[in-house]
Amino acid sequence: MSAPVLELRNIHVVHKTRSGSLFKPGKLHAVNDVSVSLRRGHTLGIVGESGCGKSTLARVMVGLQAPTSGDVLFKERSILKRDAATREEFGRTISVIFQDPATALNRRMTVENILLDPLEVHRIGNAASRRSRVRELLNLVGLPQSAADVVPGQMSGGQRQRVAIARALALQPDIIVADEPTSALDVSVRAQILNLLDDLKSQFQLGLVFISHDIQTVRYVSDEIAVMNHGEIIERGPAEQIFDSPSNDYTRKLLGAAPSLL
Ligand SMILES: Nc1ncnc2c1ncn2[C@@H]1O[C@H](COP(=O)(O)OP(=O)(O)OP(=O)(O)O)[C@@H](O)[C@H]1O
């Protein structure tokens, strides 16, 4: 097995909430002592019901949320130490796709500009090579070249999610964290997006983190599954093992509540 690109060690995230008294805010333990390793060529599925802490964990993985305690190691270096070079490399190597491409993409920018943006920010290539990379990215995600000139508002949900995937691929990441990437889409296009992610994972040996409340969707793409409940990983193992012989009652409950595929 390849060395981990990213390791989360004993991550805790405690949110302050408004639910306490006026003078003493409450606390919510959104992620409770979670450790995971992410490797190239491997899909880790994270499943759990709404509010179990999946998105908070995803935000820690991609550096959008600092943990309350614990460490995030990128190629064995902590990203929490704010070393600029490590964080820059981390930003290029770990990409994220969110649930709703309608809000994740700037609706007023053309698709070409959306895809040029990360290349320009990270000063990759020159103007001509960036435009050629945009054409390549559209190809990779199955969009026609004419899509470069449209704005996301003119596209369907599935097409917009393809743009979000192309943007996530722009910097040739090692890891893509996909947080509920198919939940906002019509059922008819969900399988297409899952297959696209799976194909890209194989083609580029990507490490994929696939997060969903739907255990059947997670099963479709994952090598390994971690089940979350109340901020903790309560069971994890190879996808077949979780499905064929779950050891935890909560996992059995999730399986029982999910009769249909996708
Ligand atoms: N910034 C925040 N401040 C306070 N509480 C928060 C914050 N972000 C999340 N929470 C709370 O932390 C818990 C975990 O939320 P999180 O979004 O990580 O769960 P989730 O499993 O992704 O759920 P969903 O799929 O509904 O987003 C929830 O109870 C949520 O209300």
TrEMBL record:
<keyword id="KW-0813">Transport</keyword>
<comment type="similarity">
    <text>Belongs to the ABC transporter superfamily.</text>
</comment>
<dbReference type="InterPro" id="IPR003439">
    <property type="entry name" value="ABC_transporter-like_ATP-bd"/>
</dbReference>
<keyword id="KW-0547">Nucleotide-binding</keyword>
<dbReference type="GO" id="GO:0016887">
    <property type="term" value="F:ATP hydrolysis activity"/>
</dbReference>
<dbReference type="GO" id="GO:0055085">
    <property type="term" value="P:transmembrane transport"/>
</dbReference>
<dbReference type="Pfam" id="PF00005">
    <property type="entry name" value="ABC_tran"/>
</dbReference>
<dbReference type="InterPro" id="IPR027417">
    <property type="entry name" value="P-loop_NTPase"/>
</dbReference>
<dbReference type="InterPro" id="IPR017871">
    <property type="entry name" value="ABC_transporter-like_CS"/>
</dbReference>
<keyword id="KW-0067">ATP-binding</keyword>
<dbReference type="InterPro" id="IPR050319">
    <property type="entry name" value="ABC_transp_ATP-bind"/>
</dbReference>
<dbReference type="GO" id="GO:0005524">
    <property type="term" value="F:ATP binding"/>
</dbReference>
<feature type="domain" description="ABC transporter">
    <location>
        <begin position="6"/>
        <end position="255"/>
    </location>
</feature>
<dbReference type="InterPro" id="IPR003593">
    <property type="entry name" value="AAA+_ATPase"/>
</dbReference>
<protein>
    <submittedName>
        <fullName>ABC transporter ATP-binding protein</fullName>
    </submittedName>
</protein>
